Amino acid sequence: MRSRRGGKRGRRRGERDPLPLRGVPRRHACAHMTALVRVAPATLPAGLAGDVQRAAEHAAHARAPNTRRAYARAWERWTAYAHEHGARELPAAPLVVAAYLAHLDAEGLSPASLDVALAAIADQHRAARLPLPTNDPAVRDVRAGIRARRGTRPRSKAALSPAELHEMIDALPPDLGGVRDRALLLVGFGAALRRSELVALLVEHVAWHARGVAVLVARSKSDQEGAGFEIPVHAAPGPLCPVAALRAWLDAAAITSGPIFRAVDRWGRVGRAALSACAVAKVIKRAAARVGLDVHELAGHSLRAGFATTAASQGANLAEIGRITRHASEGMLRRYIRAGTLFERDPLRGVLVR
């Protein structure tokens, strides 16, 4: 690995080379290390090396893929900063970490992004069984000061309303791609699915019932062990029925097994592989642009947020909404409920009337 100054970084005296992860590029190895990976070969009996390697590969999947990627990017950025300033990345000096936070803040990173940067640094120190520089008062004070000065209100994408969804559905083209997009939008909204969950759906995950379908979310952000969770999607009268839209897409595309949502090329040919998660956001933005909605305010999460806020406005309680959305935190659910019921009750009703 080379620092930004161009010098090649070798191991320092006394440092041991950690066990590499099989199949992980050397430049990303540090981002995938766990406490197991950092065990020095010299301390292991020869017969254990293979099993420890396999154990490390399992441990590397303890977190969600997006979390692993975010930590990897954050760790690489930190190591580049440390090397540029002649500092050690591991173990890190608290004062250097505090300076790094100030540097990231000056570059315009959000408080949430700063927390990811700290989490990545803490993760590597925890894996190496080193004291956490992120717990040092100097680092904590800098973090608190940045959050107090800038505020911590999250920047979230807008929730799709049923009226906006109806507009988008009506404006879809009548071709095969439009049939797919109709099913994707309605199923994503009706089941409050994350975009990664939408594209992971298989035909085998759908159970058809008289009153709708049950879709199996085999693995999700809040279910890393793959226990799975069935979500009911109710049939509805009229053109916004997610069950009818799903059936129409599967029949039109002649899909009987495997991924449900797939690419459709310009000649109307359906691919074999599932869409990417990024493609879900593109479908939403493309449909929104057709009816003049602000595409910068919408993303893949808008379907899921739309379900929660709409359910809240219809009087659904926290437990009813959470049964579908499967949020690990009630805090986010309460934000959705507040957004959906913001103008439901006026404490000054009738007071300011002349």
Automatic annotation (TrEMBL):
Gene3D superfamilies xref list: 1.10.150.130, Intergrase catalytic core
Keyword terms of this UniProt record: DNA integration, DNA recombination, DNA-binding
A molecular-function term among this protein's GO annotations: DNA binding
InterPro entries: CB (IPR044068), DNA_brk_join_enz (IPR011010), Integrase-like_cat_sf (IPR013762), Integrase_catalytic (IPR002104), Integrase_recombinase_N (IPR010998), Integrase_SAM-like_N (IPR004107), Phage_Integrase-like_Recomb (IPR052925)
Domain Tyr recombinase span(s) in chain numbering: 155-349
Domain Core-binding (CB): 43-129
DNA-binding recorded as keyword: yes
Chain spans, region Disordered: 1-25
Biased composition (Basic residues): 1-13
Gene Ontology biological-process entries: DNA integration; DNA recombination
Name assigned to this protein: Integrase
Species for this entry: Polyangium fumosum
